[in-house]
Every structure is written in C-alpha cells, then in structure tokens.
Amino acid sequence: MLTQKNYYMNVIEKIKSSVATAIQHLYQVEVLTKDIAINTTKPEFEGDYTVVLFAFVKQFKKTPEAIGNELGNYLVTHNSDLFENFNVIKGFLNFTICSKVWLNFLAENYHNNQFGKTQTTGNKVMVEYASPNTNKPLHLGHLRNIFLGWGIAEILKTTGNEVVKTCIVNDRGIHICKSMIAWQLFANGATPKSTHTKGDHFVGNYYVKFNDELKKQTENLIATGKTKDEAEKEAPIMKATHQMLLDWEAGKPDVIELWEKMNNWVYEGFDETYKKIGSDFDKIFYESNTYLLGKDLVKKGIDKKVFYTKEDGSVWIDLTTEGLDEKIVQRKDGTSVYITQDIGLAEQRYNEFKANESIYVIGDEQNYHMKVLKLICQKLQLPAADGIHHLSYGMVELPTGKMKSREGTVVDADDIVEEMIKISKQKTEELGKVNDFTTEELNNLYRIIGLGALKFFLVRVDPKKKMIFNPEESIDFHGFTAPFIQYTHARIKSILRKNEIVTQAFNSDDLLPLEKDIIKHLEIFPSALSEAAKELDPSKVAIYVFNLAQLFNSFYAQHSIAQAEDENKKQLRLHIAQLTAQVIKTGMGVLGIEVPERM
RNA sequence: GACCUUGUAGUACAAUGGAUAGUACAAAAGUUUCCGAAGCUUUUGAUUCAGGUUCGAUUCCUGACAAGGUCGCCA
C-alpha cells in the first residue's frame, strides 16, 4: 500500500521504542517495534496504554507477571519522563503516562492549525474518481464515488503526498448516441435554454425517451413473432443508433457537431453540480481522446510474448496461471476493447504526470477488471503497474432494491442535494438560533449543514460495503452525523468567543479522566489520518472525528469551562476546546465538510 | 459451475489476534434558575453455522449456508 513517513513521534511509538530498548537491556533480545502490541487500556483498569505480554512468554521463559513487573519497573525508573506508573494484570502491562506528556502535547499544539498534517514525502499520487457517462445526470452512486475520491485525495495530501485529482469522462459510445437519436427524433430543436432545463438533465431526458421508444418498437416486433433479442436489435431506432456510432467513428461532420453540442450541455450541467458539492479535478481525460490508446502496447505485448494471437486475428492474454482466465485485449477487427484503453491510459497518465501511485475509485463490480488491468500492466512491465490501487466501493441501493434508470428509481444527485439543504433549513428555522443572520449567511449555513449531512452519510462506512439509502431514515441530524459534529464545533466556538485563552504553564497534578481522554484522542489524530491513507478508507477519519465530538460533549456536560474550579483549570479546558475545534475542522475538511462558527 | 466481496442487537455501522465485543438510530426513563438540549445520563439487546490453528479468534485457515458482484470482444 501507500508508504507514509510520519515525522511526529506519537506516544504509542514512544512507548514501543522504549519497551524495545528495555527488553534489549533486560533480556538481551532484539524485538522489532512492530511486534510489540500496544492497546489503549480498558476503562475498567488503571492506566492509559497497555503492553500485551503473552507474545514474550515463550521467548523469555518467564511468566507474564514476571516480565510485566520487570519491564514496568525498568521503564518507570529509566523513562520517568514518559511513564509515571504501571500495574500488571494477567498478561497485560498497564502504563500510566505522565500528565506532563499530555499537557506538553496540548501546549505545543493548541494554536497549531497545521496539526495532523505531515510534511511532504515526495510521493506523487493520482486519484481518479467520478468518471461519469455523458448521456444522463449524476446520481447517488456517483456522489458516493466523488466524496470517497475527493476525500481520499485530501487525506493523501494531508499525509504528505502530492496529489493529482483526475477524471475520465466517458463521452463516446452507444449510450450517448441513444440520447442524440432521441433528440433528433423528438426535440424539434429544443435546447436546455429554451426549456429552462439543466443541461445534463435535458440530455438525460432524451435517453429516457429513447428507451421508451425502443420498448414500444420492440413490443411491436415481438407481436410479429420475433424473440426479444431479435426485436431489440431490429428496432428501427436501435439500427439508427448503431449507424450513428459508425458515423461518429468515421468523423461525419453533422454527427460530430451534434455530439459536441449535446456533450457541452451535459458538461455545463455537471459543472454546476460539481461546484455545488465542492468537487474539482486537476486534469480531465476524455474517452474520445483515449479510446484508441493501447494499440501500440498490444504490439509490444505480442513481441514480448505476453499476448498471443488467435487464428481469427483477435489478441489474448492467458491469465490461468494467476487463477484468472483468458482475456481478450484486441478484437479480430483490430479495434481496442475497454481494458486495452485502460492500459493505454495508464501509460499515458504516467508519462504525463509521473505519479508513482494511482488510485482508481471505481465500483466493486469492476474488481475483476481492475485485477486484470494491474496484472497486465505488470506483465508488460509498465512503470505505472505496481502503483495501481483500486479503491473499490459497494453500490448504493434503495430499500426497494437497486436503483434502475429504466424504472425511474434512480436518486438524482441534484435532487438529493436540494432535499438535504431544504431539510437543514427547516430544522434550523425550528431551532431559531441564528435569527440575526442575513439571507446570504442563512443560505450558506443551510448548504453547509445539508451537504455535510449527505457527505458524511456516504463516507462514514467502510467503502467496500454496499449501503442502503433510505430517504426517510438516512436524513437524520442526530447521532453519527455531520450536523452532530458541526454542532459541537459551533458550540466550542461560542465558548471561545466568550472566554480568552492565555498561554500559560498548566498545573499538572489534577488532570481529570475526561480531560485526559480528550487529549489522548487528540494526540492520535495524525495516526488516524495516516491509517485512513494507508487503508484508502476515509470512513476512518469520519469515525475518528465523531468519537472526538462525542468525547467533548460528555466532558462538556460534566465540567464547566467558564466557571471552572480555578483559572488554571479554565485555561486548560479552553486549550482543550480550542484544539478540539481545530481537529474537528481539519478532520471534516479532508472529507469536504465545512464546519460553521454558529448554527 | 468457477472466482471475488460481505455476513455482528429490531435497523445501520465499529473493533493492528487481546481483558467483560463498542457506537448510533429505534424503544423506555431521566436531564435546561449556570458556558449553545442539533446536547448529556441510564436501561433493554448481537459475533450465521460446524470444524481447525492459538495461551487467547468477530478477526486467521477449511467447509457449509445466505446476500451481492464478476466470468472471451458493453463500457
């Protein structure tokens, strides 16, 4: 997976390296830090972090209790700036970390708005996401794709990678021809402007019209005794579409002109949506420019004996030794297939950007395809090959089953965004906390909350799991949601507006459990980010931030900040609040979710 | 048929092989004379099944079962 270098040595790493050193001194045995298991200590036991001792029992030929006591004594004596105390229970060595460690961490970072970010590593990564077809508007599945892609790109940036966000637009092929034919037949020259329709929806409507007409024609043919397959092939509208595709490939001027016109309508619509949801790309590839790529690589592959030619002239690769099957890479008529284009595009992207890693955000129905793609690139020894990663995600389904455009059960991206914003408006008005906002401020707030809720909902679960979107239940502003976290942030900001932070040394004697829990959680933020980067999983960040907000809310309900026991406590808690707000902002930021000052 | 992914409370999700499996929604009961109640506190409730590896398995292996996906010219 992706290699990360983290220059900030966190407490867990410090514990590991001290334990390794202690073992070296006590038992003259070399132990790798990765073989030392550290857990957070369960709340029912005394301590912060726990070293699991069972692994050492055989090696040192001592009981876990003996090892625990020896290690504990050694470390509390020799590393007294880190370890304050220890206890051994069964095979677990529980350490209490010095309060000073937590307080120093807090003092050093509370004003650091770069906290969590890693210095650049020089690693360059391309992230490809969205990748729409141009015959219909974006839907909920695209939104999951876009939010995952945009999120992982930001997470990678934060963890020190240089990132190029990219998109391959599927702008050619039979699907767009369907919309074009239907437009010719039914539109009477109508345009998005003349009908006041968003361009992508406008073109999508003709795609629907095409299917309606095809269905009619097919039924008529079936009535004359044809099978369904025959009827679909022979329907006049389908024949016209195939002819149009041939004309497009031949470069027939009027077809090309129509194709450009309709695609541009779609792009205007897409751009509006991207802008609304806060997504962007550094480089867009169009399939009409790339679909012929890869042919020279087929030739090279034949020379290298990676590919072989069958009698009919089609070209294949045999992947049976890898547990896969034979796969075609070039048709008998010499044209490229999908995978050939992808190989070509991988090569071209590498030549253009020299990224050593490349992440493809693509649905899990293409798991097999991506596996084959990587394998072929490796066999061809393309420089991009080893850096290919597939961020695979599950489909978004409705309670009634899959979304099907033919049955009109697709949740349209623009619709759901508007719906979420509308609900956030309702909710905000009910609560009536921001009645002094201007209309502009209000609209911005509704957008931040509604869009935040949607984004969070789509990225908070493990990407590879399919998810069910229930319009009634999913739109929830309580619990494991963005508004809950945004609310926590707004509340902290309110406190900070009313109380001034003064930098000072803290009294280290009395760090309360709830105070310490938050600081400990804040301290692992960089690890949460690098883990999300390593696993290509933005949900790790979502869960982390939610837990932080939860911790803060529990703390806040029990301990007053403004009316703290004394000034020292008050300052300590203000510092905690400040860093919590900062981490919430950064964490939500990498997911593309803004956090308001008030809501 | 072969291969891939996923099976955890009523529902939706967590848990580098570690201690009594966490959280949210839903349900029930509390909680605003005091920093923002979109909050907090409490209660009820789960690892699909059968083997195996291990001091220890939700996690790893094998096999069932269930859901979804893919499998030579659609992208």
**In the CATH hierarchy, what is the superfamily of the largest domain?**
HUPs
Strand count, sense and closure of the main sheet?
5 strands, parallel
Average pLDDT for all residues: 92
Sheet/helix structural class: alpha/beta
Fill in the CATH topology of the largest domain: Rossmann fold
Please tell me the CATH architecture of the largest domain by its name: 3-Layer(aba) Sandwich
> How many domains?
3
Provide structural commentary.
By secondary structure, the chain is α/β, with parallel strands linked by helices. The chain has three domains: 11-97, Arginyl tRNA synthetase N-terminal domain (Gyrase A, domain 2), CATH 3.30.1360; 124-292 and 360-407, HUPs (Rossmann fold); 449-461 and 470-590, Isoleucyl-tRNA Synthetase, Domain 1, CATH 1.10.730.10. 55% of the residues lie in helices and 11% in strands. It has 23 helices and 14 strands. The chain has helices at residues 11-27, 54-60, 64-78, 99-109, 140-158, 174-186, 192-195, 199-223, 228-234, 236-250, 253-277, 287-290, 295-303, 338-353, 367-379, 413-431, 439-459, 471-474, 482-498, 513-523, 525-535, 539-558, 567-590, and strands spanning 38-40, 49-52, 83-89, 92-97, 124-128, 162-169, 283-286, 308-309, 315-318, 326-330, 357-363, 388-393, 396-397, 467-468. The strands form four sheets. Strands 7-6-5-11-12 form a five-stranded parallel β-sheet, sandwiched between helices. Strands 1-2-4-3 form a four-stranded antiparallel β-sheet. Strand 11 (357-363), helix 15 (367-379) and strand 12 form a beta-alpha-beta unit. Helix 8 crosses helix 11 (253-277). The longest helix is centred in the middle third of the chain and has 25 residues, at 199-223. 39% of the residues are buried. It binds one RNA strand of 75 nucleotides through helix 2, strand 10, helix 15, helix 16 and strand 14.
